[in-house]
Amino acid sequence: MGKKYRFYDPNQELLIPPNIHEWLPEGHLAFFVDKLIDNADISSITEYYERSDRGNPPYNPLMMTKILSYAYCIGMPSSRKINKAMYEDVAFRVLGAGNFPDFRTISDFRKIHLGSLEELFSQVLHLCKEADLVKLGTVAIDGTKVKANASIDKNYCHETLKEKEERLRKIARDIFEEAEKVDEEEDRIYGQDRRGDELPEGFRTKKEQLERIRKAKEIIERKQREKKNKYDKKMKERAEKKERKHKII
Which of 39, 40, 41, 85 has the most Cβ atoms closer than 10 angstroms to its Cβ? Predict the structure, then answer.
């Protein structure tokens, strides 16, 4: 009797729609950011869209602000990596709630609302600091290329509230500047319209992938046969040589 394994069927359809909030453990940073932005004033961002009725409906500014805030909290400045995480990272999928903005949309959103986002993110950092999320390493401020970030907790008792706010605003500004530099460098490397990790042509659809796998297996099997034939031929020649040697003796 074969070994029994736990049930596994990647093609099974769910009978009951899942609650995406159950995908993350209670107390996850994504939930903290989600509630922070829900209770923040982002009217300066939403007004931009209220004034315009051109083009397709934009992504919800609340969702966009959440994914950017969470990304920068965990030290992910690249719009391309954020776009990739929207598909692959559970926390981003929870915050995105079925939305998948491409990297150019993410980058443009940051550029358009830079001033508002910097101010808002400095407030996010302030609240994260008060919640000890910075001290605990949950918020990856030290992962950014910002001088003196490692000493964010030092001498706070000697600073005024205004100085604290200015310091956090400076950190937020530096994080957004770093994000801009990262996007510009990746644009230069990958091009304006490519994320950089796309599979090459001929590998993108399931049909193409299966065909490539079939061909690859054929090549491997052919090489293995050739190797075996070569080995058999060599062994046969060695046996014949040994037999001729015995006959001469």
Answer: 85
